[in-house]
């Protein structure tokens, strides 16, 4: 699939380093956030991470987070990923997740 045919993806993922011998994973998550920042994709870190952009770039960013966290010494990583796409309308890049949240907030405000 060429980049022009790439699906626009809105993803939510939770990367969990395992076997580190430490109760905190903050340093590992910070390293993943550095990777996301370099990717140029829109993201928001919370209990998990919302990430959006072309499917191939979103997948690569999650892959690169795995590489970086392994490089920090985590022998195992478990990651839960949910990815949504749609073809019934055009999504302006960087607005996929915000648009979903705004739609619900608009309904609640009525």
Q: Keywords, please?
A:
alpha+beta, single chain, 110 residues, 4-stranded antiparallel sheet, 4 strands
Short précis:
The protein is an alpha+beta fold and 110 residues long. The protein is built from three helices and four strands, in the order βαββαβα. Helix 1 (26-39) packs antiparallel against helix 2.
Description:
- The protein is globular, with a radius of gyration of 15 Å.
- It has a 4-stranded antiparallel β-sheet with strand order 2-3-1-4, with helices on one face.
- The model has no long low-confidence stretch (mean pLDDT 91).
- The termini are far apart.
- Strand 2 (42-45) and strand 3 (49-54) form a beta hairpin.
- With 110 residues, it is an alpha+beta fold.
- It is 40% helix and 27% strand.
- Helix 1 packs antiparallel against helix 2.
Strand content: 25-35%
Spans of at least 5 consecutive residues with low confidence: none
Rounded to an integer in angstroms, the radius of gyration calculated over CA atoms is: 15 Å
Class derived from helix and strand content: alpha+beta
Shape: globular
- Based on DSSP secondary structure assignment, what is the total number of beta strands? 4
Order of helices and strands: EHEEHEH
Tell me the strand order in the biggest sheet.
2-3-1-4
- Cα-to-Cα separation, first versus last residue: 42 Å
What's the structural blueprint in terms of helices and strands?
Elements: E1 8-18, H1 26-39, E2 42-45, E3 49-54, H2 55-71, E4 76-84, H3 96-108
Helix pairs in contact: 1-2
Pfam family, one: Thiamine_BP
Family: Belongs to the UPF0045 family.
InterPro entries: MTH1187/YkoF-like (IPR029756), Thiamine_BP (IPR002767), UPF0045_domain (IPR051614)
């Amino acid at each position: 699939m060429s980049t022009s045919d790439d699906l626009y993806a809105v993803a939510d993922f939770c990367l969990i380093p395992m076997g580190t011998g430490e109760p905190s994973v903050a340093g590992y998550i910070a390293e993943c956030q550095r990777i996301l920042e370099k990717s140029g994709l829109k993201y928001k870190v919370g209990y998990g991470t919302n990430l959006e952009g072309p499917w191939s770039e979103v997948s690569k960013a999650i892959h690169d987070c795995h590489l970086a966290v392994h490089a920090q010494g985590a022998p195992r990583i478990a990651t839960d990923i949910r990815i949504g796409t749609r073809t019934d309308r055009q999504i302006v890049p960087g607005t996929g997740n915000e648009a979903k949240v705004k739609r619900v907030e608009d309904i609640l405000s009525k």
